[in-house]
Model the fold of this input.
Amino acid sequence: MSVERPLLEARGVTRILPAIVPVTLVHDIDLVVEKGEFVSVTGPSGSGKSSLLYLLGLLDVPTSGEIFIDGIATSGLGADALAAIRLAKIGFVFQFHFLLPEFTVIENVMLPMRRLGALTMDDIRTRAGALLKDLDMSDQAEKRPDQLSGGQRQRVAIARALANDPVLILADEPTGNLDSRNSKIVQEIFAQLAREQGRTVIAVTHEESFARSTQRNVYLVDGHIARDERR
Done:
């Protein structure tokens, strides 16, 4: 009988920035996250939260240790192979939405699908439209990002993160620039992605209300996991 693997696993992950005095960003991190978990990562400023997220998302490479994404061991993989895993399996949402201003809302959502190249252009546009509808943004599809509010831009960024149907969503301070109303909307969207679609969501946040809305909290201090609490 086969045993289902965790969606994400970090084993002994350490990241050291080489310098005259080397800087350790995270040290000896062991972390297992299952499919469908909604996890917040919190801790003091400079504790390694974003550094850990970038390592888990294969945007940075550990100095030592191993990261598994959906059962795939990633150490030793080249840049192209890591980029392919990111494109197919991971969706990113950042504090600053990074929507391309020269493209419309729907064109921004289509971009990851165009890069992956698995669908026809008609199917890409249809899926992008469906994602915008799910996030109540259909009526904004032909607008440019600068015509949207901050909360609307973040919903578009979430739609873009979902474009290639990723198994893992990683978010870095996704509500950091939003008012309380829009922050709550984004929190609920992430909770629904985990609860109703079975996606794994890991979000770095400094907001206590956001952290309380998650199923699990990983608290970092000085690059170490100080607490790992399930609710």
Summary: Helices lie at 49-56, 79-89, 105-116, 121-134, 150-161, 180-197, 208-212. The longest helix spans residues 180-197.
